[in-house]
Design a protein that fits this description.
heterodimer; A: mainly alpha; 2 domains; 3-stranded parallel beta sheet; 22 helices; 44% helix; 5% strand; B: mainly alpha; Fumarate Reductase Cytochrome B subunit; 13 helices; 4% strand; elongated
């Protein structure tokens, strides 16, 4: 990866040593390779109608901005102050107590003070003060206000794309100031000028056209699922025919497209199909609603709404009764806290009731979308599924709570209940690093690009450090999670910091242990590795 | 940054009040005009700010969830840290405002020999709680200066606060606590490198101002002889809108009163508005139930999105070839 050795990476980080220059005096910002994503391509911006579409090169002096860019940003701030009480209040009430300062994984991993949530917000707050408050207008720098110039804009860009919107800071803030909210709005402002990254704008354009970030076209999606089913047949002897765009199915199943593409996500996708087959669920995939994730959420809320609308549209077209959502982080933040507001009232669907157990999912009665872990936990609770836990006996498992599902939803017990029922060896990481206090994987909110591997390894350091602890103490070798971004970002993070720990979705573990009706004697897990005790065969 | 500036400004304010009353004899300005002006600025400014915030709608229901969600009936959910009902939200807000719940969670991260250690750290919570509660009690205690008859509840608070009965006049615990807590909060800004780096003049200024108020208050009560009857005559006059300027009040009191006036007038334009803002924070004051009950965005607007028809038009041949059902053959 061209990175320093792990022990060297963090050795120069000193959380107690701040630069000698005050933070307003450290401009222009230095674009360190490994810390910033490549700029967006014009064609991707243009495809979805983002303003100022052109090839954007971060390190070039000229960012090719529209002439009145400053007005566009200031007007944008004004409009958002009037539209978001969160933004308005958060701009005004921070007392800079510093409770958030060492809560951010990027600050811990880089030691860069502008990665302290309070300073990340101050970068924008200083501009707000200058143009929207009496004190800032009168006293300028003395009141913490500064002009918006090109260097400030570049700094905003640099640091709003060094935040994964994980909300860990907002948990500790005595006023609930949420940097994710500030970053979301900061990125909206930047997107008014076409200042996006390639890694985000590419998937957004793909998602608009093909329905998913990876640009998987319908026929490819079908052959991918069939390919997985061939593997399932080889492993279990059971032939599954995946239902695709099936009208009148009871349930629409939507998961992030990452689960269709690379391991270990694909094992999770196999797991979903095995689970649904085993319980005889009447469901369908959709090739158009083939993405539950939403990289639009990392550009603007409007773009997020534009991408997410297709899911309910497909539910309507396919005449399903309700929706099950797969394992994903920000997808669930969007579904849980935004989607119903954007699209509702969702009165063309029915209140979700499990056709297997009869359980009414009260908590999803309005938006009609149930989390796969809620659904599976309910199945297990009712004794519907039979397990041979020993098939997972080679795994010593710990669970990584994903930021979005933790602090933007609160799904903690369901996945743990599932894991305990399908694995014999489960150990928790330390309390300060799990559940609502969980640490980010270092690559959320569209920051899982390859070119920022150094930033990701640094940002993922707190998470990896906790895994290392249970790896050494209990021999943990499997990091389970319910997020597709995690399944993409945690494997390189583990290889770097804690070699020997692998990554898995929760449903993969379920499918491994699940005894299916009519299955042959299993000798392999979903990864086609021999099961414990079957190594000889 | 700006600690010197903030200190000098507060010193200047003290000097201003001293010269104004002791040398120039402008007692009426400091005893009547400034207090009334400050109070009006505070009242109008505070209300205006809150109304301004209130005018910005809450488009999305975005609570920061700090515990298990409400889902399946057999999973115990966190009623306060992840509420789904109005009562739950009220409790969450109560714990937040009365006990600084979020600050109670505070931890400290340290890197030692390349390993990260995260441990509990309650100092800021204790310091903040001590500061705010002693401030509140002192404020309530002071109401006796503005009422002809001291209500029983204030007398009770008074006697509890001076429970230890040390010295004469009796020592208030809150006087000691607020001085210590304010010095602790100031000390953090000087000695904690992270907090020092983020601090602005507007962070030091209110601390020095409050320390000035506390110091003059303590001086008047325990060290310098002030004519308490004259002072009460003055404060009662203010409260009953019949301002009088009795003889022998002394400039120490005027400095105290002037700093309080500045604090009130400064309040609505400063970070001190966190007092009002915390009630309006959407990550705390909303229920986590957007899948159960739809939250409506008042400025929602239709957006351009891709329709299935366009999608099928682009991929129809490929779909048909792959045997995927289509709408139009």
């Amino acid at each position: 990866m061209g990175l320093p050795r792990p022990d060297e990476l963090i050795s120069n980080v000193n959380l107690k040593k701040m630069p000698s220059k005050w933070w307003m005096d450290t401009l222009p910002v230095e674009f360190k390779p490994g810390y910033y994503c490549y700029g967006a391509k014009g064609k991707n911006l243009d495809y979805v109608g983002f303003p100022n579409a052109r090839d954007f090169h971060v390190t070039e002096e000229d960012w090719k901005l529209p002439e009145d860019w400053k007005n566009i940003v200031l007007e944008g701030i004004k409009q958002r102050l009037e539209r978001f009480r969160s933004f308005h209040v958060f701009m005004d009430i921070c007392v800079r107590c510093g409770a958030c300062s060492d809560k951010c994984h990027f600050f811990i991993g880089t030691g860069d003070p502008k990665n302290m949530p309070v300073l990340r917000a101050e970068l924008l707050r200083s501009v707000y003060r200058k143009y929207f408050t009496a004190g800032g207008k009168l006293f300028g720098r003395k009141a913490g206000a500064r002009d918006l110039d090109i260097d400030v804009l570049k700094e905003l860009w640099y640091y709003f794309y060094q935040c994964t919107e994980c909300r860990r800071c907002s948990l500790f803030c005595p006023y609930g100031i949420d940097t994710a909210e500030i970053t979301i709005i900061g990125r909206e402002l930047l997107n008014l000028l076409g200042l996006n990254t390639d890694w985000i704008s590419g998937p957004v354009a793909n998602c608009y056209r093909t329905g998913n970030h990876l640009g998987i076209e319908p026929h490819t999606m079908k052959s991918t699922l069939e390919f997985m089913c061939n593997d399932i047949e080889e492993i279990t002897g059971i032939k599954i025919d995946p239902p695709i765009n099936k009208k009148g199915a009871e349930i629409l199943f939507v998961t992030p497209s990452g689960d269709l593409f690379a391991d270990p996500g694909i094992y999770n996708a196999m797991g979903y199909m095995m689970l649904f087959h085993e319980i005889g669920l009447d469901y369908t995939w959709s090739t158009f609603a083939s993405e539950g994730g939403n990289f639009g959420f990392f550009t603007s809320l409007e773009m997020a709404k534009r991408l997410h609308t297709k899911i309910y549209e497909e539910a309507k077209r396919l005449k399903v009764k309700w929706i099950i959502g797969g394992e994903c982080g920000h997808m669930w933040r969007v579904w849980h806290q935004f989607h119903n507001t954007w699209y509702g009232p969702v009165d063309f669907l029915e209140e979700p009731v499990s056709p297997i157990t009869g359980t009414k999912f009260e908590n999803a009665k309005s938006n009609k979308i149930v989390h796969i872990s809620e659904f599976t936990a309910d199945l297990i609770r009712h004794g519907v599924l039979k397990f041979d836990k020993s098939r997972n006996d080679n795994l010593i498992v710990t669970f990584h709570d994903s930021c979005n599902t933790s602090r933007g939803m609160g799904i903690f017990e369901e996945p743990r209940y599932i894991i305990r029922n399908v694995c014999n060896h489960f150990y928790e990481m330390p309390d300060e690093t799990i559940r609502e206090q969980t640490f980010c994987c270092g690559g959320g909110s569209g920051l899982n690009a390859g070119e920022i591997m150094e930033l990701r390894m640094r940002g993922g350091f707190p998470r990896a450090n906790a895994v290392k602890y249970v790896h050494e103490k209990f021999g943990v070798n499997m990091l389970a999670n319910i997020c597709a971004i995690d399944r993409a970002t945690l494997p390189p993070l583990m290889d770097y910091w804690v070699p020997g720990v692998r990554v898995s979705g929760v449903t993969e573990l379920v499918a491994n242990a699940m005894i299916m009706k009519g299955e042959k004697e299993r000798t392999m897990n979903l990864r086609m590795e021999p099961l414990p005790g079957k190594e000889e065969q | 940054m700006g600690i010197g500036l903030a200190f000098i400004i507060v010193l200047g304010l003290i000097l201003f009040a001293y010269i104004g009353t002791e040398i120039l004899g402008l007692e009426s300005l400091f005893a009547v005009v400034f207090p009334y002006l400050a109070f009006v600025i505070f009242l109008i400014g505070f209300i205006r700010r809150v109304v301004k915030w209130g005018k910005s709608p809450v488009p999305f229901r975005i609570p920061t969830t700090a515990g298990q969600q409400f889902s399946l009936p057999w999973i115990k959910y966190s009623k306060v840290d992840n509420p789904v009902t109005g009562w739950g939200v009220a409790l969450r807000m109560f714990f937040e405002i009365a006990f600084f719940r979020s600050l109670f969670r505070n931890t400290k991260a340290e890197i030692i020999n390349g390993r990260l250690y995260v441990g509990s750290n309650k100092w800021l919570w204790i310091g903040a709680l001590a500061f705010h509660y002693s401030f509140l009690i002192i404020l309530i205690r002071h109401l006796r200066f503005f009422m002809a008859q001291t209500p029983t509840c204030i007398s009770i608070i008074d006697s509890v606060d001076s429970f230890w009965q040390i010295g004469l006049p009796m020592l208030y615990m809150t006087d000691i606590i607020i001085a210590a807590a304010a010095l602790y909060l100031l000390g953090r800004r000087i000695f904690n490198p992270q907090v020092k780096y983020i601090s602005l003049p507007s962070d030091y200024f209110p601390l020095f101002l409050i320390l000035g108020i506390v110091a003059t208050g303590i001086l008047m009560r325990y060290f310098s002889r002030v004519d308490i009857t004259a002072i009460k005559e003055l404060t009662l006059g203010l409260a009953y809108l019949k301002p009088t300027i009795p003889e022998g009040v002394g400039s120490l009191f005027y400095i105290h009163l002037f700093l309080v006036s500045i604090l009130f007038a400064y309040f609505p334009f400063s970070k001190l508005m966190h007092m009002g803002g915390v009630f309006l924070s959407p990550t705390r004051n909303l229920a986590n139930n957007n899948r159960m009950e739809r939250h409506v965005n008042p400025w929602d607007y239709p957006v351009k999105h891709r329709h299935y028809e366009e999608y099928e038009n682009e991929f129809r041949e490929k779909m048909k070839k792959a045997g995927i059902p289509v709408e139009k053959e």
